[in-house]
Amino acid sequence: MTTDLAVPRTKATDRDRLRRQLQEYGVYLGVAALLIVNILFTPHFLSTENFRTQAVQVAPVLIVALGMALAIGSEGVDLSVGSVMALSTSLISLYLGYGIWMALAAAVLGGAAVGVANGALIAFIGVQPIVATLALMVAGRGIALVLLPQLKDVHDPGMAALGSGDLLGIPYLVLIATALTLLVAFVVRRTTFGRQLLAIGDSRPAARLAGLPVRRVLILVYVASGALAAIAGVLATARLTASDPTSLGTLMELSAITAVVVGGTPLSGGRVRIGGTVAGAVLIQLLTATLIKHDLPPSWTQIAQAVVIILAVYAARERVKR
User: Fold this and answer.
1) What is the pTM of this model?
2) Is the pLDDT of residue 177 over 90?
3) Torsion of CA 256, 259, 265, 270, to 10 degrees
4) Of the candidates 1, 44, 94, 118, which lies 20 to 30 Å from 149 by C-alpha distance?
5) Where along the sequence do coiled-coil regions lie (predicted)?
């Protein structure tokens, strides 16, 4: 009888182990599968120009996803990132006449200010992150449109160089995204702030009992998320050579959440996977590019992204159940 019980228990353990491995590494398998499909069926996919284009396009998504990973790691979420991108592009146009550095500073400070508002609502007033950041999502886009009601071309040599320039053949946008990825990874893994963030995400009441500065950490998390979204907005503006608060950043929050969750960061908090987030952002970009290159209509791209989101949420649910 003991032997009979041991067999199904072993099989269940094997299934559980396989499921965990798929949840942990499935995003890398997805990226590999898309690469193979494109190499076999997409003309000129292996060209240097194509890889450059894909890398440039994924950079803003990755930068926003880094901030989203911090928010989700603290058992929160930041729905305002798309609106922050719109706000940053408006501020760029307003302050570019004072010089590019003033415009860049205004844009990043604007994003950080939205982060302060989000963090204060969550940390001091006790508003749920989804509600607080939803309010700032609506308000941020509204403020952006008040500041700049319509599309405006950006004519500045510095912004043009930022959007299309490169160093040793590597675009500035890719170098900036890489540097920010390494910085966030270092903060999460090697600093006291990173350890406090993960502890708060794992159990906020326990973190308070342990004497951790919960409010300060939460505010800094959302300030970082806002600042990173603003940087992504600046880079997108530089690449497009235009400020368009009406459409810039639209649905970016969904792309960022998908990249983070597909990458293995659980919605329940307490863990941040930076490598997985990078792979998740690449997966979204490859999926979109694959459908576009094969002349499928935009509706199919949206459906495919919706399927990825559903799978990501399902995977996250399985992690929470365990």
Assistant:
1) 0.90
2) yes
3) -10
4) 118
5) none
